Each structure stands twice: as structure tokens, then as C-alpha cells.
């Protein structure tokens, strides 16, 4: 490493410290998690620290409405991999709500159930739904997007080449709700389940892409054989 590179690293603007955890604040990270990988984990932890979330719920999708007809690994396997991946972080929890409910997994329905359950337990729900800029670019096609913002704040993180929307776009499409969307500059991982499944199918290593215990689970349960061709 050259001297200029070292100097740039030393003089870079320091990051702000983690925000204090807000009691009752819960991040919600949904996905197929087929499989869960380090990108998911890093994003969840970054959003948790940045927004001061008390915990983050990982929710494997039951039947993703945006992937009709596409093969998805059994929910029990996907949930098991999530449980293994998050077990050493006390701020992370697994929710099986979408796997147990059955039917299409609409985010707005999941958040409504979480909110109702929390209120029934005497809690005041404060949810933040975490999604990528790529997913947010299609938010207007989601089921009841405005109701989604009534139920939870949104934390939008970068992914790939997708750009974060300007505030003017938020004001146009979500008038009065634009302040419920936080545009964050989180970890910029380019990992995808598609890439990882392809590597496994080809007999390649997924070390450093998924936690070792998840790699072991994939191998032991013979997930992602070469005969399958999937997309995500």
C-alpha cells in the first residue's frame, strides 16, 4: 500500500458512533434468505446501529409474491439457516410468521399482524422495515404501499447500481409520509442468493460469503444441486 493510500485512510472523515438503542424499536428484514448470507447480516447490523434499533427480526418469506412460479428452497431449511446465522447476535431474532401463515407473503399484512400482536401484549410497536434501494424502486407496485408506511418506517439501503430516490420523489408519491423513509448509506455488498446457489451447484466454495455454519448446513442437507436453475 502506498503512502498516499495510507494518508487517505488516516484523514478520512470519522464515522458517527452507534445511536443509543430506543426501547421497543424493532427492525424488520424480510426475504427469501435462500440462503442467508453476510450481506443480509451486515445490512441488519448497520441499520440497527445507525437508527438505534433495539432488535431486528429476520422474516423468511413463505410464498414471495414477486417470485411466482420460481422454485424456492423449503421454508424449514431457510428458517434453519437464518437461525444458525443469527444465533450469536442477541439483538437478532427469527420470526416464522410468514412461513406459518401460508399464502402469499405481503409485507403490509405481515406488519399489520406484528403490530396487532404487539398491541395485544400491551406494547407500543415501533417498526422499521429494512429494504434495498433496488426493492424500493418498485415500492409503488407493492400491495398497499401507503398503508405500509402507516405501519412502519422504512430504512432504504444501497444495493448494486440502484440509486436512492430523491426527497422530491418521496414527497410526490408519499405526501405527508416522506419523513417516514430513511435513506441510509449502508454496506454496499453485491452478494445475492442466485450467485451463492450457482457456486454451490458448481461445487465451488462459498467461504467468506455465508457464515461457516450455514455452509455446513447447505452441504449436510444437499441444498442447491446442479440440476436446479434458480433466480432471485
Question: Spatial order of the strands in the main sheet?
Answer: 3-2-1-4-5-6
CATH architecture of the domain at 34-188: 3-Layer(aba) Sandwich
Q: Please identify the structural class as seen in this structure.
A: alpha/beta
Order of helices and strands: HEHEHEHHEHHEHEHH
**Could you name the CATH homologous superfamily of the domain at 34-188?**
HUPs
Mean pLDDT: 88
Helix content: 25-40%
Radius of gyration equals 19 Å
The end-to-end distance, rounded to whole angstroms, is 37 Å
- What is the number of helices? 10
Per DSSP, what share of the residues sits in E-state strands of 2 or more residues? 15-25%
Using the alpha-carbon principal axes, give the shape.
Answer: globular
CATH topology of the domain at 34-188: Rossmann fold
Q: Give the number of DSSP strands.
A: 6
CATH class of the domain at 34-188, named: Alpha Beta
Largest sheet data = 6 strands, parallel
Low-pLDDT stretches: 1-11, 228-232
Task: Briefly characterize the structure.
It is built from 10 helices and 6 strands.
Describe the overall structure.
The protein is of the alpha/beta class and 232 residues long. It has helices at 3-11, 38-51, 75-86, 97-101, 107-120, 133-136, 145-151, 167-173, 193-201, 212-220, and strands at 22-31, 53-60, 92-94, 126-132, 153-157, 181-183. 39% of the residues lie in helices and 16% in strands. The longest helix has 14 residues, at 38-51. The protein has a six-stranded parallel sheet with strand order 3-2-1-4-5-6, with helices on both faces. α2 (38-51) links the parallel β1 (22-31) and β2 (53-60).
